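[job 4471] stage=fold_predict status=RUNNING
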Amino acid sequence: MTAHAYLSASGSHRWLNCTKSPLLEEGFEDTTSVFAMEGTLAHEFGELALLKGTKKITDVDYDIKKTILMQDELFYEGMISEVEIYSTYCLEKFNEFKAKDKQSIMDIEQRLDYSMYAPKGFGTGDCVIVGDNRIEVIDLKFGKGVEVDPKENSQLMLYGLGALEAYDFLYDIEEVTLTVAQVRLQGISSWTVSAKDLREWGNMVVKPKARLAFDGKGETNPGDWCMFCKFKGQCKARADHMANIYKLYKERDKETIALEDLAYILDHEKLIQNWLKDISEYALGLGLAGTKIPGYKVVEGRSNRKITDGDGLASALIEKGYKADEVYRPQEIKTITALEKLIGKKDFETYSTGFIEKPEGKPTLVNDTDRRKSIVQTPEDEFDFE
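[job 4471] inference complete, writing structure tokens
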């Protein structure tokens, strides 16, 4: 498993803006997702392609490792061709460097240490090409949900600082190019910054913020960087920020929302929706753990019955004298509601035994006035004698 820095490059947009976030996130378990695991697999294909392209692996070993990776359950037809957009760019760029400087090198999955700017800070450069007094750091992004802009991107800039520290003493670097290969979205995009300006950013911006973040000091400052924060659902500063957003109306002699206020609401719509979703998830987690939230309880969510064996149920009903065209829609059995209407709820319940299941509903937090029974016992329930 890959180690992660306390002040990670991927989380830098957050800790540079909210220096208390690393402290607040302590104690939360690291989680992963199918999307993250899919991205890891894509990176392994990318690394393998670059090893082959730079002749750091034999064709036989390449074929063996590629075959093994293709057995992963997350592999799909087309993944390799998508990753090739990244690997082809890297190899072409490497050839460009070598055409100007025969001493150019390409390092793959290179550890980049930027701890001179952020305590114990390090990351991994997917592909780092050095030569001709310049560096290019190329980062493979396999996600397709959010576009990543390399311009002034703090994650890539930290990688750039780490690359400067690793290679500058040999190559006298003058500029650093930061490239994002978002192969399933907008493709390849780059941004170039001088080594001088990058170091100035590291000294003037990163160092003071990183020191505060490492020491758990500074401000709790909400913003779009809250998206991946583990503390986001219970953060009071974020809740206060959302409350301030609601305080947007000016004194107006109108009964309708002014257009400028409407625009303000629309500007913050997604921000507010995401916050409410995070609040609900946090509250539900507390409820499931047995914490009583005043006025709320955890109940089984609503779910719909579904037929588990359509042909079996149809055969059972046909044996009872119902015609095939009565119980089947064209090429499929009718819905439960339609069959109940045809047969009657009582008889249908008898005939359908063993063919239908009703899954448990997803736990849902509702007001205490809801008629459904709580599915979680809380300390307060011990004193409820009703």
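[job 4471] summary: The mean pLDDT is 88.
[job 4471] exit 0
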